Protein 1
Amino acid sequence: MLRPTPRDVHVSRASYLAGAMAFAAWLPFLRTPLASDAAGFLALGQQWEHGSSLYGDHWVDRPPLLIWIFRAAARLGPIGLGDDGVSAPAVMVLGGLASAAVVLLAGLLAAHLAAPGTRWTTRAVPVLAAALLSSPLLGMPETNGELLAAPFVLLGVVALVAALSMPAGRRPVLLAAGAGAAAMAAALVKQNVIDVFVFAAVLMILCRGGVAGLGRAAGSFAAGSVVVLAAALASAAERGTSPADLWQAVVVFRLRAGEVIDTSASANTSHRMLLLTLAFLASGAALTLGTVALLNARDAIRDRPRGAPLALAGLALAGWELVGVVAGGSYWLHYLTGLVPGIVVLACLVRPTTAVRRVLSTCLGLALIATATAWTEQLINPANPAIALDAKIAHYLRDHAAPGDGVVVAFGRPDIVVGSGLSSPYEHLWSLPVRVLDPELTELRAVLTGPDAPRWVVVSGASLATWGVDASGVQDYFVEHYREQAAYDDFHIWRRIEDRRDASPGP
């Protein structure tokens, strides 16, 4: 039986202050160049209409709500190309708002779950959330799927906990429906973020017979999720994105991608995994997660035979989030953002005895120090060498391209396409879909030999070949019909030969 929700749930002043600080942490980075993924999502959002691929004329393995969000961001502010990369302040504001929302929801959840008369939890938990979300060690200031999904995760948890803590009636039914809607919204931002579904399944199973109206709440939860899913699929279908194609992109593709990464990935993947592990440890997230997980496991064991339903559900939630980080395959720092909701839930459930408060205060202090250090370093040295290199390539294309020219980047780096202001006739702006869906470059050859062949091709390395890709069927045609014009580090810019005068090498 869940503890009844207090009649008056008050979010602490610390929550509002921490939320404001979480938002303010993004403000110095409004003009910071976007990560390549964010720039690519902007490009997809801008051109998402009926086209030749999943989202307009391009393809990405992401659900539609994420593209909707970036489409809205593209309409809210300008997109520019500076010396360091593509900038879009609206996207950074969006990241700040998502962070603040997570912090405020963490404060609300703490107010629901904290023991009567206990103020430590309601003050410490939102501060902890703000510290983690403001840390460059967890990917900040990158606006990504994990961050944009996190508010929906905590909203679903808060609504479900409130629903199951009330006597049977209309209000808990509505709250359960809202929890289901939030659960589905999170998954429609990033498909592996089914955190609320995991939390709800474990909690409802353990609460059987102990919560009045559980059946109605479960039905309402399911109904809320189905309504949101139906609305999202219908809206996407209006723009030419079918449910069947989305299933292939967000589910089937990810299974195939995992196999390709396991069998063909370069040494860079292992290097990123090491960096991710070090960031997890240095940020304080590992210590905090391990501590609150052990404390909740201890409490669940003490409450045998059934265990504490909320503690076990929280452990399942955090466990699923860890699976998401490990199974992601590419090991980018922003994967760690996906752990924040689980840490928050488990921290809210800890029984704050004097000894426990001391331990958690140490964890919080270490997280704050790590965030302050990393945030200051990010502020002093905001430039990303890889993104700055992409900007140089984009500037070259802007300076030398003619109206109507197209460009293909082989492979990935959609920020180059966005920064250049050119369109790409090749549907794959990211590298992993090329390796999974076009490993022999059959589609690319059709583009290069077709009527809409791009005038410009940017190649990473000495040829079109890369890990997981067999370029033998197109490389000879490429070098016969294109000539290298410029090189930036390991990137080479090629231009299509249009007549004999173009057959000579570029400068």
Protein 2
Amino acid sequence: MEPLTPGDGIFHDEDALRDHFPERILERDEKLAEYQNKFKEVVRNKRPRNVFVYGPTGVGKTIGTKAVLQNIEESIEAFGYEDSRFVEPSLRTVHLECKDLNTSYQVAAHLLNLLRVESDGDQISTTGYPEGEIYRMLFDELRRVPETHVLIALDEIDNIGDNDNILYKLPRCNNDNSATYVDPVETKVGVIGITNDGTFRDSLDPRAKSTLCDQEVHFPPYDANELKTILQDRAEVAFHDGVLSNDAVPLTAALAAQRSGYARTALNLLYEAADKARSEGDGVVEAEHVHAAEERIQQGAIVEEVQGLSMHGKLIAYAMLRLEEGEELPAKIDEAYAWYEQYASEVDVDPVTSRTVHNTLNDLMVNGIVNSTEVNRGRSGGRHYEYELGCPSDVLLNGLRGDSPVGSLDERL
């Protein structure tokens, strides 16, 4: 092997193709204006609304939330409150990442510590207290906050699952005359719940849903033109002049929009395409590098998704594989189910229902593992869906390889 050197003919600063570089958000002006308008009450020194923010990964929810909160703080500082109709508010913002927090207790404990960081209070252990004591300390801390308003952003709140008591108590603390009551004269509290799972709100306790989802903001996926703008902005920092062909960025944006519409997808694809050009000694990133990178990424995503399936999910995927090899695809759901049922019997597990198999096949369509087509045979034949593989069979095999007991069905596994 030759020694590595820092010189690079393609990349100037590849960090520019990472998620949050730089900390700004493009192609979201209208959405951010809508989002910010949910908090007009704060600059008027009124009680804020609670807001539920949802949308898939990589569409600007977290960065957008930080931008909105920062702009509210700056608006308060910049506005002169000489008008006697308005009393000058003050604002504290708290952003808590809930990715590794799966109970209301953990959220409350970590939130308490974040509030105490600002007030130089003592940090507590996040385990070992009775749950009621944690809530008592949290709401006592909110009462002591010197600012008139506290806006609390709980990011990835879906991780707490059905343990959602905090999502009932916290958004209602200004109007619930109980031990959790925080007098809005002392502290006006607003909660922002952020999630990738738009269906999470439907699983909430009805009381929590009615308060947390008082106002909603949906961040949709980017379209190809929006992704193109984002990529061009990052490319100015990431690459040396002249290394991107004219069609590299538009093609990357189009493929990423087709696959997911996520900025993260587009940035990763452009990086992989450029890395491929670099590894092959090419001085320019061409369309062929983008297509090759897209195929490699797509196949890697398929392998990873298949590896993460439940045992029944893998049996369903294996049934589709064998149908493909027997040239029996496209197939109706009952045909796929019959093969799945046979393989479940061979590995000595009870089969799931036909409805579950149907749902799993639909889930497998997300990354293109399976495709479906609606077939209309008129009055005599009716309408139904037929399924077929959307990926090469060897890629599906790679995802299934090494798994037990599914591996016992085929010597290739």
